[in-house]
């Protein structure tokens, strides 16, 4: 019991350090990983549940600091841009998987996770294609690792190449897997980059629904018996996208309450740093030991091509 209380106190203390303004999002993530691997704890499941909820809340709060005109401008062009990038990344990922000879479902999970939005896309697609728990855990672990790397190197590369706030926002949104790391990288780079990256990333995340429905239909045709077993698959809509837009609408068109915008937005940014710390706490030795190196190679190659090609196109045309 004493050990349990010590673990809770230690985790809470480190969390307060993260949210207290002493750490940025990358440092908070590394702190969580360091604690998880060095000391361990028994709250992975609870932390995973609450980190997802707090991430959704923080993204909704970030909407308070975004001008609705930015959503309109990025959103219309973003639909076309994200459609092209998702189609290209998904096709390339499936091709790489065939060449490297990774398992079919794992190949699809990694490809979808890279093309759309990391863990959220994997979680949405997994029940549709009847993926095993071991396959899901493995793919999530690889995506988590690449997210952590992106959070550390993207701001550095952006500064080195002297990318504008607009360019970095587009690059982060198109090339980083998970929403949390996209927002975390944007937060490090600047206010404008954060707003653009968050908005375009949420547009990209909307493709979870049609892509999930598409593969549901594909797998239903391939194997009617397999796809028809059990209850119909439910695809969870990312409600925080709607919340983000509603919050932006409220503070864009109701100037009388505009004073609260900076307060809510600042609170959301602090909450996001706490979320990064909690995500870091979810990293385990078991996840590291169970990595399939063929699948890891596929994920790295796919992410490398997506990151470099999108960066080149952004520098040339944005």
Describe it.
With 318 residues, the chain is mostly helical. It has one domain (24-317). Helices cover 82% and strands 0% of the residues. Helix 5 packs parallel to helix 16. The longest helix is centred in the first third of the chain and has 33 residues, at 68-100.
Task: Write out key terms for the chains shown.
single chain, 318 residues, mainly alpha, 16 helices, 82% helix, 0% strand
Would you spell out the secondary-structure blueprint of this structure?
Layout: H1 2-22, H2 25-38, H3 44-62, H4 68-100, H5 104-115, H6 118-128, H7 133-160, H8 165-175, H9 179-189, H10 191-205, H11 208-222, H12 224-228, H13 240-253, H14 259-281, H15 285-289, H16 293-317
Helix pairs in contact: 1-2, 1-14, 2-14, 3-13, 3-14, 4-5, 4-10, 4-16, 5-6, 5-7, 5-16, 6-7, 6-11, 7-9, 7-16, 8-9, 8-10, 8-16, 9-10, 9-14
Summarize the model shown.
This protein is mostly helical and 318 residues long. The protein has 16 helices and no strands.
The residue ranges in which pLDDT falls below 50 over 5 or more consecutive positions are none
Silhouette: globular
- Counting helices, strands and paired strands, the structural category is mainly alpha
Mean pLDDT: 82
Q: What is the domain tally?
A: 1
Strand content: under 5%
**Main sheet overview:** none
Instruction: Report the strand count.
Output: 0
User: Could you tell me the radius of gyration in angstroms?
Assistant: 19 Å
Query: What's the number of helices?
Result: 16
Gap between N and C termini: 57 Å
Helical content band = over 70%
In N-to-C order, the SSE pattern is: HHHHHHHHHHHHHHHH
């Amino acid at each position: 019991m004493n050990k349990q209380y010590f673990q809770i106190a230690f985790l809470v203390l480190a969390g307060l350090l993260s949210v207290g303004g002493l750490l940025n999002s990358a440092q908070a993530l590394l702190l969580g990983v360091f604690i998880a691997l060095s000391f361990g704890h028994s709250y992975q499941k609870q932390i995973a549940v609450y980190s997802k909820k707090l991430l959704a809340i923080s993204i909704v709060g970030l909407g308070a600091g975004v001008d609705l005109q930015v959503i309109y401008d990025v959103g219309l062009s973003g639909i076309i841009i994200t459609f092209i990038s998702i189609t290209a990344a998904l096709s390339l990922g499936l091709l790489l998987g065939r060449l490297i000879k990774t398992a079919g479902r794992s190949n699809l999970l990694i490809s979808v996770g890279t093309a759309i939005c990391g863990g959220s896309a994997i979680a949405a697609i997994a029940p549709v294609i009847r993926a095993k728990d071991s396959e899901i855990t493995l793919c999530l672990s690889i995506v988590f690792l690449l997210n952590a790397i992106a959070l550390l190197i993207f701001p550095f590369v952006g500064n080195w190449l002297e990318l504008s706030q607009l360019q970095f926002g587009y690059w982060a949104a198109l090339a980083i897997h998970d929403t949390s790391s996209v927002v975390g990288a944007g937060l490090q780079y600047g206010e404008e980059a954060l707003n653009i990256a968050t908005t375009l990333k949420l547009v990209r995340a909307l493709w979870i629904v049609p892509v999930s429905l598409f593969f549901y239909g594909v797998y239903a045709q391939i194997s009617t018996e397999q796809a028809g077993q059990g209850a119909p698959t439910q695809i969870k809509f990312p409600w925080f996208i709607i919340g983000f837009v509603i919050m932006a609408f409220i503070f864009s068109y109701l100037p009388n309450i505009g004073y609260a915008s900076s307060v809510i937005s600042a609170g959301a940014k602090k909450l996001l740093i706490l979320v990064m710390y909690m995500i870091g706490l979810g990293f385990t030795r078991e996840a590291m030991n169970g990595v399939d190196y063929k699948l890891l190679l596929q994920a790295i190659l796919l992410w490398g091509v997506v990151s470099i090609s999108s960066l080149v196109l952004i520098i040339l045309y944005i």
